[in-house]
Amino acid sequence: MPNFALLNNVDHKNLRIIRDYSPQYGDGEMSVVTFPQEFRAIQNEYPIFFKKNTETGKFIPVALTGLRQNENLFLSENGWDAQYIPASVKRRPFLIGVQPPKQGEGSQPSSLVYVDMDSTRVNEVVGEPVFLPHGGYSPYLESMVDLLEYIQYGTELNDHFVDVLLANELLEVVTLEITLKNGERNNLAGLYTINEEKLNGLAGSVAAEMHTKGFLECIYMVLASHANVLKLIARVEAKLSAQ
Asked: Most Cβ neighbours (<10 Å): which of 155, 186, 191, 192?
């Protein structure tokens, strides 16, 4: 379980972060959260689907990185083997949190940066320094803060995007049934995608409004990304052949 602590330059003045990607750093997942503003980059390499949180009932878009549990096909001896690394991966081990405003300090909440102290990336010996010797943010931490703000915006955008999809009944469940050359069968259940029949039946005014919000483009990028399932299969086959 993560152990998030509020980042500060006193308790964490010597903190360093290892930026490599490996299962030992928690990167061995078969899917990661993605955000509409990065769909253009994601759809070049990863299939985009939706998953439903069983506790909250909320849908979130995810980029598939593997076809089997705890297997990330983009990890290699040289790190992450892709031109684009999803934002939700690059932000590790940091997380942004929102603190409600204190009485008398205005109505705007403040954003705070947290760090997972139990992450195997976190140490005081090797990696990128988080703070400068005088206590200021290092260039690395500044880039992480920018990324966390990008993710915070993306999280809000995800909610709006999914709300529009649900309002127009555009999500449908799908199961990927994949048989490899060696006969191994993989059934990926619990995924959702765009219902193309209902998409094509949208009223012109509804489609126009979705286009204005940028959501129509997102929908088509989700659909186009499904061709990348074949790329994942090719990665599995190459891995099995190498073994």
From this structure: 192
